[in-house]
## 1
Amino acid sequence: MKQGGNVNQERHSFMEKIQMVDFALVDLTLYLDTHPQDTQAIQQFNQLAVESRDLKTAYEQKYGPLRQYGGSFSGYPWSWGDAPWPWQM
């Protein structure tokens, strides 16, 4: 039972990291809307975009699909119905 708790905690921590990076991307998007020539912010945005993509890919390899509408492939059997869904964590 303890191992299951550790796996859940690891999964939750992984998702939390993804959410933090994605929040920073949203914040930078809003900033860049009003400061489109800030090269440092653009560079930070691009670095975080790569980090977000890599985190999501690693998460999916370990826990299953995360992105919808073709952003994630499905294994067999179709696993989108498996809980918890990302917004339930």
## 2
Amino acid sequence: MATQAQIQKGYIDYVLTHNEQPKSVYTFVKKLKITEADFYAFYASFDSIEKNIWFELTLTAIEEVEKQELWAQYSSREKMLSFFYCYIELLKGSRSFVIYSLRKQPLKLGTPAVLSGVKPIFENFATQLIEEGLETGELADRKFFSKRYKDALWVQYAFILNFWIDDDSKGFEKTDEAIEKGIQVTFDLFQRSPIDNLFEYGKFLSQNGKLKEKMGF
């Protein structure tokens, strides 16, 4: 009986050797010396293998950072930085596959199909960090906009991933810099700013219009 890991490994070996998916499940399982029933016990298609690989990589990164000794003491910003550093470090072990998988996707707007399983677990993770930040006052609770914070972090996810696959710097040091700058700027936007104070002041004045009249201004 084949294992899920065996099928994944066989698939990765094939696509990196041939730069394309196998022609059929039949030829693929024949090469692995397993049955089609073994294959379909785990996967419905070759695309589902790729989606599962991405899902497992992302879930592993989340689980790894949450095990860190000082995790509970980190701010939301620090937790997101820690995740991305860990994620890229993990992806280094599968860089050839990551590049193959992302670059074969057709150029179009929206999330690549292979990341369709990644997006919900990343957004759930990001939402937890955002809620923690809102509760502690680290992040500004803005009507309507707070719900979109996770979307901004998903944009950062896509940017960092695409930056890394094109990064040719030594030790991918430019990617580390991109993570640092990108997450810092994004969380700066999430925090309270002078504009928030201005809106609060305007709200106060509008709610206390009679005070203005009494003072004769």
## 3
Amino acid sequence: MRAARVTRTDGPRALEVAAVPEPVAGPGEVLIEVHAAGVNFPDLLLTQDKYQYKPELPFVLGGELAGVVREAPEGSGFSPGDRVAASSTIGAFAELAAVPAHNVFPLPDAVGFAAGACLPMNYLTMVFALVVRGQLQRGETVLVHGAAGGIGTATIQLAKAMGARVISVVSTPEKAEFVKSAGSDEAVLTAGFKDEVRALTGGGGVDVVVDPVGGDRFTDSLRSLGPFGRLLVIGFTAGEIPTVKVNRLLLNNIDVRGVGWGAYAGPRPGYSRTLWDRLLPYLESGQVDPPIAATFPLAEAGEAVARLDARQVLGKVVVEPAKASDGLSG
């Protein structure tokens, strides 16, 4: 089969697409014919040896996918021919992937494979973030940083589906228009966002801040919270891990809460399926429909990942291993 592998950590354009042996499903694993694979920020970091998980070289890149079951173990709930989505730390940028059954999820017929490949990482993270860690309630207000990216658009769609008001923080007017088209009620530019948010909330602040960016905006995010507000730490795409003076939390009765879906779900097989079941009604109603910025054939997987490094992606980038234009034979 064909796969995009990291053979050296010189960045995304060093990815090598070549014929490799097909994976063999181990005990409890589902073998999936991959129709689409989502591209995520950890994929970029893995090509640069900047991610906390460091698999042995060479390895097949890609952490989420959608496709059709080829083989499934007895008792898994899956059968050959089933449409599924799945999460896996690596291995998705290939024509076949073997994934533990507890990380495989039924994909509704109304959801295409490209959209399905955008769901496991970002949308399960944000179900965990908003429902479990953020305890978001109908009528509350959510402020989301990095709103034009994959985590951001997942936040917008899920928060709106849960009955919240959404204010997005973006870097350009173009991104502001994009996030509004994705469902955000308002959008403000990064420079001076704190004052804009205060004005939009009548001085009361927001209930929840979703922050996948980190960096120097963290303190102003805390200042944007109202009483009993919760700041959800999702990641640090800005590169800098911020610090917090805890007296701010005490004086303003606010929380900073870490969100580690993978860290929590990993040792609890079956937990991610419970989150997926929370997501399913939103998929079936059409309230969740991931915006896709671009799709790439497997031969251009390096370019697909490099798009994230440029910070210009609106929505999600997808690799499609089945595209005929790859020009390679396995």
## 4
Amino acid sequence: MRQLPAEYYQMLEQLQAVDFVLVELTLYLDTHPSDMDAINQFNQFAKERRQLKKAFEKEFGPLLQYGNSYSSYPWNWAETPWPWQV
């Protein structure tokens, strides 16, 4: 397996942290659907996640398959390490 730069792991960790926050806010909002502060936090983190994902994929390739991430030419899904490989 090829050596990955430290930035790869840093960006992946940032994505995982934001994903954790989004899951927790989703669970909270399932029981508190009128909490506007939580909704605003969720939207803020959802926006941050989109930006992090875009930056990660630009640098290292797609994170998800099945239409959730674009591919460059040539098809690059198999070129990057998969989440269970890091």
